[in-house]
Write a structure and sequence with these properties.
The complex is a heterodimer of chains A (331) and B (328). Chain A has 331 residues and is mainly alpha-helical. Chain A is built from 14 helices and two strands, in the order αααααααββααααααα. Chain A has one domain: ABC transporter involved in vitamin B12 uptake, BtuC. Chain A has a two-stranded antiparallel sheet with strand order 1-2. Chain A is globular, with a radius of gyration of 21 Å. The relative contact order of chain A is 0.18. Chain B has 328 residues and is α/β, with parallel strands linked by helices. Chain B folds into two domains: 28-133 and 277-314, 3-Layer(aba) Sandwich (Rossmann fold); 135-275, Rossmann fold, CATH 3.40.50. Chain B is elongated and about 60 Å long. The model of chain B is unreliable at 23-28 (pLDDT under 50). The chains are: A mainly alpha (331), B alpha/beta (328). At the A-B interface, α3, α6, α11 and α13 of A face β7 and α7 of B.
């Protein structure tokens, strides 16, 4: 009797696991993961330095900031929006946090909090312009790109902010259990946002908003509030990425994050999100950022001229989108 | 109604901003000399700004610092076009590209503006003078210093990695050319060139990644000082590599910043070739003012094959032996 029930439980378990595995395999994130795995295997074979733990940890540390900013813009892209102010908010928040310590003698935590608040506020302003003034997201965030970058130069007069508190360096240069802090932070944020998007009502509403805004509105959901929140959360994430980078380098730079918006959006697109909205995952974005990080690292390790870097990344973006379109056509 | 209020507010903010930015700046009849660096926020140019401001105070002329947000020639062309429209008296510019700026600088000269260049020249533009270090020569100096560091070294082949900024940028390419021409035929062999696009974070990533994966590398030549703007703690691999064999692992870099001192303290730089950007800013304003007053250009040299006058602002060779004096 016991044997029979054990067999039944075993069959059921394997069926559940099989279904789960089948579902995972079908996801876009898994396909992107396969691309990343293939890249890693190729690099593993042709470049011995690639396989060292220190190199892999360094690659992960370097793409952490892109991934965190990418997670922020993933939410925006899922709603069908776009945010071009990523790099400027990234730079401005890093400058604000470091100036908080250097110019206003704030301790580390309040300074970091100040940077995050400023990033959130700028994101909130983006959202308000889009929702209340009906500006297209492209235009509103393009304006913010210029405004925030300009503010970086105004408040620093172009000088880097030096003399941060030693405790601040832990965010970007420290490590826990030999794993660099930025990787832990990226993992924590990725888990939180994965749960948020998939397991909460608000998360599901964000997908609904991107899938069909009118239908979502008709069903009684306050889409305006949702959009404003998404841009504000995005701003907070770009700020966090900027603060981590400021900590990694030990300075606040007014030029930090220049052009990073395209890198973060590229990570999201490579990760399988659709720029038309309704589709996208946190896991996909993290893998997209990882692919870009691995590519950059590979070009250095293989001594390939940096001139090729943008070429290769551009090619990967186009291939990723073509594959996505083919998949959608088949459906 | 709500929209109307919002729009009115927006325009009010905008108009206020413009008026504030103008700041009553156009005080009639005051001579205005504008200095245009390659890019806003590039720390290399900040001493030039200080020199410009000091010259403005000393000479009693209005000086202005106008820069494109990115180091792009087209954006600089637009800046100069705006300055022509503004009717400024003098422009000193560090050109992102000599040919791309040539025509607009000619147009400025035709409009009666005194034009000079500093740091990065545009020789065919017809500018009155160039103030700065000769970038090719600076590269030659870096090459000579690298050769000196490895003089009599038993190794048959010394491997060198190069860090550059934006590929194709005139000043960096000139330095690279000077360096490569100098080490040609020696036992120094360039095995890698990485471009950081003038991005400090990327420069650190490139140096760290390459050093980690090539611990047997002998030397780094930094064609610009991007990695030395950060704290040394941002470059653990570089520190490990350099301190593992300081007698054989060498670093020669362009540029000296206040933050470079920490790297010298730790023995991470062997030679830094500093440029005198303060003098570039100061002498540019001073000599444009001289021309506007009908006086001769001070310190201008005639060089064979070099159009206009060359004002050598000199450079300093900073080494572990003399760096303390440099940073005092």
């Amino acid at each position: 009797m016991e044997d029979i029930s054990a067999q039944t439980v075993g069959k059921r378990t394997s069926r559940v696991l099989g279904n789960w595995f089948g579902a995972v395999v079908k996801t876009q994130s898994f396909r992107i993961f396969i691309v990343m795995a293939v890249m890693c295997i190729v690099m593993y074979i042709i470049s011995p330095p690639f396989r060292t733990a220190s190199n892999l940890l360094s690659v992960a540390k370097n793409f952490s900031a892109y991934a965190i900013a990418g997670i922020g813009v993933t939410l925006v892209i899922i709603t069908g929006g776009i945010d071009l102010s990523i790099g400027s908010i990234f730079g401005f928040s890093g400058v604000i946090a470091t100036m908080g310590m250097v110019n206003f003698n704030l301790p580390v935590f309040p300074a970091v909090l100040l940077g995050l608040l400023v990033g959130t506020l700028l994101g909130l302003i983006n959202g308000l312009f889009i929702v209340k003034m009906h500006l297209p997201p492209f235009i509103a965030t393009l304006g913010m790109l210029s405004i925030a970058r300009s503010m970086c130069y105004i408040i620093t007069e172009g000088y880097p902010v030096v003399g941060v508190l030693p405790g601040f360096l832990f965010l970007g240069q420290g490590s826990i259990l030999k794993v660099p802090t930025p990787i832990w932070l990226m993992a924590i944020i990725a888990i939180i946002f994965s749960i948020f998007l998939n397991k909460t009502i608000t998360g599901r509403r964000i997908y609904a908003l991107g899938g069909n805004e009118e239908a979502t509105k008709i069903s009684g959901i306050n889409t305006d509030r949702l959009k404003i929140m998404v841009y504000a959360v995005g701003g907070c994430m770009y700020a966090f990425a900027g603060i981590i980078t400021a900590s990694k380098l030990g300075i606040g730079q007014p030029t930090a994050g220049n052009g990073y918006e395209l890198d973060a959006i590229a990570a999201v697109v490579i990760g399988g999100a659709s720029l038309t909205g309704g589709v996208g995952t946190v896991a996909g974005t993290v893998i997209g950022a990882a692919i870009m990080g691995i590519l950059r690292n590979a070009l250095v390790l293989l001594s390939i001229k940096s001139h090729w870097q943008q070429f290769v990344i551009g090619l990967v973006i186009i291939i990723a989108v073509i594959l996505d379109q083919l998949r959608n056509t088949k459906k | 109604m709500k929209k109307l209020v919002c729009l009115t507010l927006l325009f009010a903010i905008l108009a206020g901003g413009v008026l504030f930015a103008a700041g009553g700046a156009e005080k009639a009849a005051q001579r205005t000399i504008v200095v245009v660096p390659q890019q806003l926020g590039n720390v290399v140019f900040l001493p030039a700004k200080e020199g410009m401001e000091q010259a403005g105070k000393d000479l009693g002329v209005k000086v202005d610092w106008v820069a494109p947000v990115k180091a792009e020639a087209q954006l600089q062309v637009e800046v100069v076009e705006g300055l022509i429209q503004r009717g400024v008296d003098g422009i000193a510019i560090s050109c992102n590209h000599p040919d791309a700026l040539k025509d607009v600088l000619k147009a400025a000269i035709d409009a009666g503006i005194v034009v000079s260049t500093f740091d990065a020249d545009s020789p065919e533009s017809g500018r009155a003078f160039y103030a700065g270090t000769e970038n090719y020569q600076a590269g030659v100096t870096c090459g000579e210093e690298m050769l000196r560091l490895y003089e009599g070294h038993p190794k048959k082949e010394i491997t060198v990695a190069i860090l550059e900024g934006i590929p194709g940028a005139f000043d960096i390419e000139s330095r690279k050319a000077g360096f490569l021409d100098t080490i040609k035929g020696s036992n120094l062999k360039v095995v890698y060139t990485g471009a950081c696009d003038d991005d400090v974070d990327k420069s650190v990533v490139i140096v760290e990644d390459y050093t980690r994966s090539n611990p047997d590398l002998d030397a780094w030549f930094m064609a610009g000082g991007w990695p030395y703007i950060v704290q040394p703690g941002a470059m653990p691999e570089m520190i490990k590599w350099k301190l593992a064999d300081p007698d054989n692992h060498k670093v020669v870099t362009m540029d000296v910043f206040p933050s470079s001192k920490d790297f010298f303290d730790m023995g991470l730089i062997d030679v830094a070739v500093g440029q005198n950007f303060y003098q570039m800013g100061y002498l540019s304003v001073e000599n444009i003012n001289n021309i506007l007053d009908g006086k001769p250009i001070e310190g201008g040299m005639v060089k064979e094959g070099f159009p206009g006058l060359f004002i050598d602002t000199g450079g300093q060779l900073v080494t572990p032996e003399n760096y303390m004096a440099e940073f005092e």
